[in-house]
Specification:
The chain is mainly beta. The protein contains 7 helices and 42 strands. The chain folds into 5 domains: about 140 residues, Immunoglobulin-like, CATH 2.60.40; about 150 residues, Immunoglobulin-like (Sandwich), CATH 2.60.40; about 120 residues, Immunoglobulin-like; about 120 residues, Immunoglobulin-like, CATH 2.60.40; about 130 residues, no CATH class.
Length: about 675
């Protein structure tokens, strides 16, 4: 920065020149069908705030010159005397006084079309830093970017050139500056409530830009050709290997979706894909190239922050972290403001890393002074020889401050990924239900994934039905296999070609609940563990099972295979064995239409069934369809049963609060300790 001349006690009369940078996303140029998208800045508006963060005016920057390193020098003039902080708004030609008065207020924001190569950006610098002579400002883009890639090893069947994105249900607009003028985090981003009706992308481009949107809201569809057949696939921005949480779409972040495996042809229509579960026909890895800073520590003179712990899949070979420091002078021998060390058994997470970006952080927000933010990329070995997860500890230091974060790499899923180990599910000992059990479990069974089970894991092993079990399993026996099973409730028997797994007690009155496992050690000495569940049942529903069309909407009819957990509840006179949800429900969590955090759990409603054919009687047992509707061995609950539970004080109304502070009440049926 250079001062152009002095004209007052607070700022030069002719203005000051500031260097600004627009840090690249992870790729400087992203190729699309339309060619390369190269970003540029064509205008800057300076918005002035006083010490109380009140708006005192704005001015168009009179000079904007791009430098050889890609940064820009801008000359700021007409700075009001009361100015304490200068906010910089790039590529907005119609900024109103109302919007400028509070750049982070979403209600004041205008709806604008996103232009990737001319991005709306924001940054800030204090006047003191500006007059100090060394000020720089890094800008944040207003939008998030999603980039689609396809792994090289599957391109012959699923070519990247034919793939593209269609994104819907994103926020209708974004404020120019982030909330509280602080770079946002997934957890800190306010829930999106106002959505755009427009779709972003038409299935022909692999790069799209969207407004900042809270987690799990956006619907992302991939249109592609698999083995020459066009189809549609739904994906989600899962943050971790167990797919329990999703990324929010944060401004200035690039989320790269890499398709790593395709299991089946896509849906014939986009509408069918939108209604499906994410990634049930393909698998993808999601990488955020700019992980948010989530941990901060400070001493008297400076601060250090790092991004969150990282969870990756067994096949992931890269991990990215970010760090921020306000240390003003390097203390490391290599002249850097920070140091990094990695501790990992067998050096699977490499200690050498690539610094992919360096940006200047503003004094506004959580930092007390201007600092530097760095993005680091680490190389990982694949974890394809063990089903056990492993952890590496990354220690970041800056001056006397130190913070740790961990990289957790999932173990290899031999049960699903080994093509020579496809499990066959048999009914009544001979009828094949499926010859690829775990694929069937993932793609066909509704309501069994942890996110549909309030976190309970039931989708990793073999199921025997509770009460009246008819299922058994076959797993191919390979050379060198050895089996370990210490549980006498089921048998693993070698018939020469297969390991046959059968339940020892198929009695219809066996309602004992338990979980177990057995292990196959393969010829390479790798242990493959198969969990075994005696916790619930599979149940199939067709649209002809006396199901009615609620409000004459046939699309609300449920159908297909469902998993129901079995629970025990005590009445005053006896113990009952109940399923944990309504028939046809694929979620055992609460659904409350009036509660924002629960109103989307419509899959907890279940089907709408006729239970009696007698129209002119109050006695529902006449013409009762319970035996036709209920799973084998179960009946529809009666009024007497609910009265017995009420008499035992087993049914209670309880009040809860969501993470957003909304309160709600629901009726709960207490289960016994062994449920």
């Amino acid at each position: 920065m250079e001062a152009i001349g002095l004209g007052g006690a607070e700022s030069p009369a002719e203005g000051v020149t500031l260097n600004i940078e627009l840090p690249n996303f992870s790729e400087k140029q992203v190729g699309t069908r339309a060619g390369a998208e190269v970003e540029s800045i064509h205008s800057i508006t300076a918005v002035f705030y006083d010490n109380d963060k009140k708006y005192v005016g704005m001015a168009q920057v009179s000079s904007l010159t791009q430098q050889s390193d890609g940064s820009y020098n801008v000359k700021i003039s007409n700075i009001p005397p009361a100015t304490a902080t200068i906010h910089l708004v790039a590529n907005v030609d119609n900024l109103s006084e109302n919007e400028a008065s509070d750049l982070q207020d979403l209600s004041k924001a205008s709806v604008r079309k996103i232009v990737i190569n001319s991005p709306i950006c924001w940054g800030a610098v204090t006047l003191d830093a500006l007059l100090d002579g060394n000020a720089k400002a890094s800008l944040l883009r207003q939008f998030a970017k999603i980039t689609l890639k396809v792994a090289d090893n599957i391109q012959s069947d699923f070519p990247e050139a034919s793939a593209g994105l269609i994104v819907s249900n994103t926020a209708s607009k974004s404020s120019i500056a982030p909330a509280n003028y602080t770079e946002p985090t997934d957890e800190g981003l306010a829930g999106t409530t106002d959505f755009s009706s427009e779709k972003i992308g038409d299935g022909t481009t692999r790069v799209v830009a969207v407004n900042e949107t809270s987690a799990s809201k956006a619907c992302i569809i991939i249109k592609a050709r698999y083995k020459g057949v066009e189809g549609y696939y739904k994906v989600a921005l899962y943050k971790n290997a167990n797919k329990s949480t999703q990324y929010a779409l944060l401004r200035n972040h690039n989320y790269t979706i890499t398709v790593t495996k395709v299991n089946d042809y896509g849906f014939k229509t986009e509408e069918e894909a939108m209604k499906s579960e994410p990634e049930n026909r393909l698998e993808a890895e999601i990488v955020d190239d700019n992980p948010a800073i989530t941990k901060m520590i400070a001493c008297k003179d400076y601060e250090l922050g790092v991004s969150d712990h990282i969870d990756v899949s067994a096949s992931t070979t890269e991990a990215t972290i970010t760090l921020v420091t306000t240390l003003s002078q390097a203390t490391q021998a290599d002249g850097k403001l920070y140091g990094v060390s990695v501790k990992a058994d067998n050096d699977w997470a490499k200690s050498n890393f690539e610094e992919t970006s360096e940006t200047t952080t503003p004094e506004t927000g959580r930092l007390s002074s201007q600092g530097k933010k760095y993005t680091l990329k680490f190389t990982l070995d694949k974890n394809d020889k063990s089903e056990d997860a492993r952890k590496a500890t990354v220690t970041v230091t800056s001056g006397d401050l130190s913070l740790d974060l961990t990289i957790t790499q999932a173990g290899f899923d031999f049960r699903r990924e080994d093509p020579s180990r496809k499990v066959t599910l048999l009914d009544n000992g001979s009828t094949e239900v499926t010859t690829d059990y775990f694929k069937w479990l993932d793609e066909t069974i509704q309501g069994i994934k942890p996110e549909k089970m309030q976190g309970a894991v039931r989708n990793q092993g073999l199921h025997f039905g509770v009460g009246n079990n008819t299922y058994s399993y076959q797993i191919p026996k390979l050379s060198g296999d050895e089996v370990t099973n210490t549980d006498n409730r089921f048998t693993v028997k070698d018939d020469g070609s297969y390991w046959n797994i059968t339940l020892n007690n198929n009695n219809s009155s066996d309602f004992e609940l338990w979980q177990s496992s057995f292990t196959i050690k393969n010829g390479e000495g790798i242990n493959i563990t198969y969990p075994v569940y005696h916790t619930g049942i599979f149940h199939q529903i067709t649209t002809t099972d006396y199901q009615l069309a609620e409000n004459d909407d046939a699309n609300k009819k449920v159908k297909g295979w469902f998993y129901y957990e079995m629970v025990k509840v005590k009445g005053k006179t006896q113990t009952y064995y109940m399923l944990d949800r309504n028939l046809g429900a694929s979620n055992n969590g609460p659904y409350i239409r009036e509660t924002q955090a629960l109103k989307d759990n419509e899959d907890a409603i279940g089907g709408y069934f006729q239970i009696s054919q007698e129209k002119k009687t109050t006695d529902a047992t006449q013409g009762n369809l319970s035996s036709a509707l209920a799973p084998s061995g179960y009946t529809i609950p009666t009024n007497d049963m609910f009265n017995d539970l009420l008499d035992a004080n087993t049914i209670k109304v309880k009040s809860y609060a969501t993470a957003q502070g909304e309160t709600y009440s629901c009726a709960e049926i207490a289960t016994t300790g062994d449920s």
